[in-house]
Fold each of these.
Amino acid sequence: MSVDTVSLTGWGRTAPTTAVRFRPRGYGEAAAVVRGRGSRGVIARGLGRSPGDAAQNAGGSVLDLSGLARIGGVDAAAGVVRCDAGVSLERLVRVLLPLGWLPPVLPGTGRVTVGGAIGSDLPGSDHRRAGSFARQVSALELLTADGEVRTVLPGTALFDATAGGLGLTGVVLGATLRLRRVSTGLMSVSTERAGDLDDLLARFTAGGDRLPYASAWVDLTARGRATGRGILTRGEHATPDMRPAHAGRTRLSQRSGAAPGSSLLPGLPPLPGGLLGPAAAALCNEVRYRCSPPARTGELRPVSAFFHSSDALPDVRPLYGRGGLVRYRFTVGYGQEETLHRVVRRIAARRSPAVRAVLQRFGAADPGLLSFAAPGWSLELDLPAALPGLGRFLDGVDEEVAAAGGRVCLAQDSRMRPETAAAMYPRLAEFRELRARLDPAGAFRSDLSRRLGL
């Protein structure tokens, strides 16, 4: 096991803190770290893709699980796979797809580990059908505060606290995942432009769930009658009869890559670091919107290009400047569309340089005590952390979201206040009580847990 002292941040590169990092080679070494933890506790960390401080632990220990990455055999009869928590979803897709299987829930990046997807209970673009990631887990192996490894099953209090529990109930070491059978490595994709936010919401709902995967890019720099305009993308798994007549046998294994027109800054040369200002962002968004066809159906894309197109692009974080980026994601329920409208108008009126903004629809709430997804609309956006007055501005948005019964995503948060989190998550007291009972000495801690009093 390697050990070093490092300065760590989340993917957003804000608020670095120093911790002792352990890289175990097996479950026994991981358990030894938990048993020998210091007074500042320990937190698990995967590939560091959480934008905020959920996988940081100032002055304490960080358990880097990226080396625990074994994938067991696929049980074709049961449609399940057993894997270590350090396996990335990108690698899981690469291994499973040639066998005719996929994880049923894939978030917007493949560069997140199975353990991280469980700890954050990540939703995908088919949440209305499949729920979040933890719903596809049939069992998990959890290293608890006493240094023991437990098998935890869905429907138990410990499972519900661990799903979306941000690593604060223990260290997920492995999981058994249910899989989805697919017959090709392609997706049949439809895209359409919407002229404003009302038009975009109407197009979302008009399609129903005929195509299970749906998300939209929203232009948060457009104002006036174009406020909230966007591009809606929907998809389904392609069947062999959907392939072009001239194509050969459809391969299950497909090379990953960005889909045409999916670039964050399409048609523009690279910008110098830190120059993502309002004018540049508005120009990027204008080009992206105009370059998208008004409507297109039946386009075939490789699975990875559909789900993880941004992973094939260069690292865009330097565009946000040395201060890093703040990712803000919130959800409000159906019937609260006016709140969504007000937030979009506020961002547009402020001329915030937002080039990445993703709108999704969620279905039934997930069972995790701190799971983010709930029935309604979710908007996720990135902003430069160094924007003047950004903290006060987002505090105001927090209040508006909370007043509408919505919530901000804890797994991606880097700046929310503890009283706001308590107002948004009604089961937080239940989560705290369970943690106090199972981990009275506070073995598992993070910068986020201290900041929000979790």
Note: The radius of gyration is 21 Å.
Amino acid sequence: MAWTREQRYQDYSNYSETLIDGLEKQADTSRYKPKFHISPKSGLLNDPNGFSFFDGQWHVFYQAFPFGPVHGLKSWVHCTSDDLVHWHNLGVALPAGDRYDSHGAYSGSAQVIGDRLFLMYTGNVRTQDWQRKSYQNGAWMDKDNQVTKVTKPLIEQPAYVTDHFRDPQLLKVNHEYYALIGAQDKQTLQGEMSLFQSSDLKTWHDRGYVKHNLNNLGYMVECPNLIDVDNKKFLIFCPQGLPQNELATANIYPNVYAISDHFDFEQNIFQADSNKMVQLDDGFDVYASQAFNAPDGSAYLISWIGLPEITYPTDQENWAHCLSLVKQLKIIDGKLYQKPVAAMAKLRDNEQILPKKERVLVENAGQQYELKLTLGANQIGNLLLASDGTTEHALQLKFDTTEGYLLVDRANVGEKFATEFGEQRQIGLTPNKSLTLDIFVDHSVCEIFVNGGQKVMTLRYFAENTHTTIAFSNEEIRDYSGQYFTLQDM
């Protein structure tokens, strides 16, 4: 259906319970609906927000438009968990429609302050002639998960930025608060990150743009995120319009990171170890990742599995997108590792040791499983997932442990989409070394952890339910071992 502006931005009360029930049933019965990833009850899900640990539970919110697979009047939906795996959807917690978020409660973050959780988010406002104004707003959540908005904006749009000014990350450093905000400079139309400082969350001082050594950041920076990972400062962000000579990527927009020994809040300087940004995920569909440090200092990350301005097959079913598994971040030998949290093992059921010297590894793998596979050195082959036993209908993982590469090809796995951005993604591996894969499949989602999380490749695909074979495309692969587990719903 073609959505008018009026339909996208009407009040939620205009939608009947009958309509909402119908949308939820339509999404719930979709063959593509993930079962152990956070996904919307209906409509659109995009950026994760407010990822935090508060009052003995893990919390994450996501941007939502519950009435269709489009960007309209967005609110925050609230999910809680005891283990970062089993998530409970509590519904809309931060609704939009007030003076300073009249056209959407956009992305933001959270900090535990005293016995409450403080949410900082972007309020999207449109004037009568549809000009955008961005406000950085606040809200308090108590231990009963009740949210109360701060009545006035914390930060108004500075004169030197365009109306693309959003996605605040609230940081507490010693006794000061800082807000790191994505921005577009009005004069140069280039992406920047702004920093603001406050001692009381009420009066904010503009510290200007973050000074860094990362070269060109495209025309806009979204979702900046600064955390600590193993005594390093880890900066995640989404630079839109990044030149290929800065980062070769086929995705419409990348999600990247840079690492430094220190962020100088006094001087507002981030001096990265390298001026080259690195892809956070080498697959097709990760964006708007959010990370935070738990009370014990551990670093956790969750991402939107979806991309802006891309049409997905589930749009026809009036729902779209999901969030990734939660990953724990580690830096080992100077490299980032992303590992699924240990509690994911709680979902395992029906362990099966992979057969030796067989082309077909699992004949009826179903739609929810984990595959752990080790491939020996000096082998060339093609692992098929979601397959009918042939390469004609399969998600293909083409590997070469002699030269050293892994290529993911989704050209022949069900409904096609986003083909203008390519149907293959490839990463380099150390030549003449074994390759380990930990693969999570959830109906239309695949997350591939390579060599213990040194690389991650995430993608959506939309295959026939009858295509459930896991196999090699030839019989020449002999040096391998592994396990297969069915996975329960979260």
Note: The chain has two helices and 38 strands.
Amino acid sequence: MTDSHRRGTATALLVAGCFFMEMLDGTIVSTAAPQIARDLHTAPTSVGLVITAYLVTLAVLIPLSGWLTARFGPRRVFLTAITVFTLASLACAFAPNLGALVGTRVLQGVGGAMMVPVGRLVVLTGTAKRELPRMVAYIVWPGLVAPVLAPLLGGLITTYASWHWIFLLNVPLGVVALLVAHRLIAPAPRDETPPLDLVGTLLTCTGLAALTWTAHLLSDPAGGARARTVAVGALAAVALAAAVRHLLRTPHPLVNLRTLDVQSFRASALDGSLYMAVVAALPFLLPLLFQEVFGWSAVKSGAVVLFVFVGNIGVKPATTYLINRFGFRPLLIVSTLGLAVTTAACALFTRGTPVAVIAVVAVLSGVARSVGLSGYATIAFSETPPERLRDANALFATSHQLAAGLGVAVTAVALRGGAALTDGTRSAYAVAFVVLGVLCLVPTAGALRLHPAAGDAARTVVPAQGRVTQSTVSDSRKSD
């Protein structure tokens, strides 16, 4: 392995570590909500604001990552983001009241919004197309692992320590990441930066914030005022519609929607986001089923959900080989269909279902998640022109971040709908699992419509055709 390969791999692992911190912080706090509420003398439902403040900040600022990178350079933005995230984590641990904790979570979101998109851009910029599957495999796994580990880790921390350690654990990890990033990431020449699209920023950030807040209101177990939910949802729809209209017309948009012209990127940004919503929902729904219906402890339910992680990691070494051997279209069809089937199969779980059966379904679900997300994350940039890479990265990060939050909201709505339609708690969960399974069939339909050669520029081997070049892909499409 050459020095450039080693440096690229090390950078990808660094970004993966940062992604792990960001994803874990976005999911683990819900496990500690009761303990945080007791210590800060507030209602457990109020702690939901701590989670939402973080997610809203991510949604609002991620679209700005592309422009900030062009303006200040990836190295400066990335190092600053890690520093802000680490210091904010320390401040979260010592927050004296709910208001202070919400404020410090917003600061965490500021760091997280810049940390992963910019880090991913550094990796993508220095990676040849044929190396994309391997590099993306490193970056994707934290997004799969963190939500699965969160229930168990949160249960262990709240049972045997205190909620403060949820945030304190980020401090040594952040310091190490900062030192490694300082050594690995070299200064890069900055591009000519167009002026910031102020109108696009205002419309996009308002729309994304309102959409994320609507998701919070929909997922709130206590239920929010219907009029308020409708009003915030309407604001999101109006602002995002106006943002799309503006972004398509202005010469230097905050987010370049024209990147969606590339079919492979469009499939990842749209179908991949819906797939991500189902992926994010499962680690949220399974622990609730195990604890509320089966009566398991937080530690036991977290340990069983961990079998999803076993499937993720078990197939990960083979992901690049599978992409090179079979191509993106067949793998995305199989992985989306596999996730749909295993998610719907969870509707059949009862208190008497053997743990071994649940574990097998969880492992198969983990395999489908790992292959699918790696496929979508790789195909997104396989045919994107270098001059549009920064725009595509910002749009990809925004859509997938939103999808993760919206997946939980859809699950909560499905649960409430199931409770209204059925006569038992377990039946309500069955309805929710079936809804998520059916939802995952939409990406399956999208994968079926993909061109057979989609993403081949990022593959090393194509069966029966030898090595593929960008020209053969283009020629194949022209012949259609």
Note: Residues 462-480 have pLDDT under 50 and may be disordered.
Amino acid sequence: MALDLARWQFGITTVYHFLFVPLTIGLSVVVASLQTAWHRTGRTEYLRATKFFGKLFLINFAMGVVTGIVQEFQFGMNWSDYSTFVGDVFGAPLAMEALLAFFLESTFIGLWIFGWDKLPRRVHLACIWAAAIGTNLSAYFILAANAWMRHPVGFEIDPTTGQARLTSIWAVLSNDQAWSTYLHVVSAAFIAAGLFVAAVSAYKLLKDKEPRERELFRKSLRAGFVVTAIAGVVVTLSGDHQAKLMAQYEPMKLASAEALWDDEHGAGFSIFAVGDIQDGRNHINVQVPGVLAFLATGDLSGDVQGINDIQARYEQVFGPGTYIPNVGLLYWAFRMMMGLGLAGVAISVVGLWMTRKGRLFPYRWQYGLVVAALPAALLANIFGWILTEMGRQPWTVVGELLTAHSVSPGVSLTEVAISLSAFTLIYAVLAVVEFGLLRRYVKAGTTAVMPYPEDEPEPEKTDDRVPAFVY
């Protein structure tokens, strides 16, 4: 069916695009902070780190822009009925994102790129901070639009056209789901960005024997750990709030993510479950008692709605039909999101302790573990996005518009198949280009963006600062 392929196409392009979004959000602030440190202290190592990680940030930013453009075209090509229904509401935050946030972001990134040694230092510093603010504003407007689909507010249905009509842009932008989702997504983005800095630094410490480079990357390794650890606290707190909003506005998503089939008093958090989706029950379910009830209600004895009971209630409200999303996918996406994300944060906390007082890791595999934490963090972000979007099914706008009624009626199966194949091929090429560029500049190190002066002294070598590797 064209509907299924259109969903696959949007899912593939969105997941691919979301590889770059967290890094762009987090790295913009990291680079701005490094330049601020240079501006305040005048220490060359901060300038060198700014230019090095700034180059990696720009590569990622460019790829994010290219892949993000495709998303907008799909609304008109594959999802015209959806666009017709939500255009008056959905278009407002997206227009604000394009006209305000993206222009702010792109304009000042351009000034920052070409303004080295041309703009006054304070003005140049202001440019990267303006770009970072624009990046995070852009994220808020997009997430506000997405939150409206999960909890539609500030609108009414036009009795003549049957379309959603905006009544309060403030209600859309101040939606509980919007600001809570923003905190959770942005803090998760900083986990990814922090681990990106840590992973690059760990790789350079493994491969580079230049003492000045090693000293710089020892410090950036710890900086990445600090960013990740702080973001881990925020993502945990915001995730707790997200669970409570989910219980209130999207009970079917929460129940599916926990494979909770029936309403339950004091429901436990599922560690591992094997169930029968057709019969609506679990054969095996290893739980931690009361934890799900606490996450959903703040009370260990709270009541949590189950899939079967929610389905029965939805049939009474919306009519006959299946309102249950893909339970197996949501169940494991939830656990992969939490498991991979917490693993990355744990590696950072342990890494901070092990690298205190100028120490470095004694074993090569420990550096490899830090490098491996980066794809784990990116996967955690992707699984979180899959949970958010797939958990809304079968709705595109919860309670208002079904996904089956959102697809373009004039698009054929063949047309969607051709565009899906083309996008997949193009994105595969872009992935090779992105990886090649990042690998090239990471291997080149900071000397590619700022060579060391011949008369610059090397840092003193001590056993605890630059230890020999133990194999």
Note: The chain has a mean pLDDT of 86.
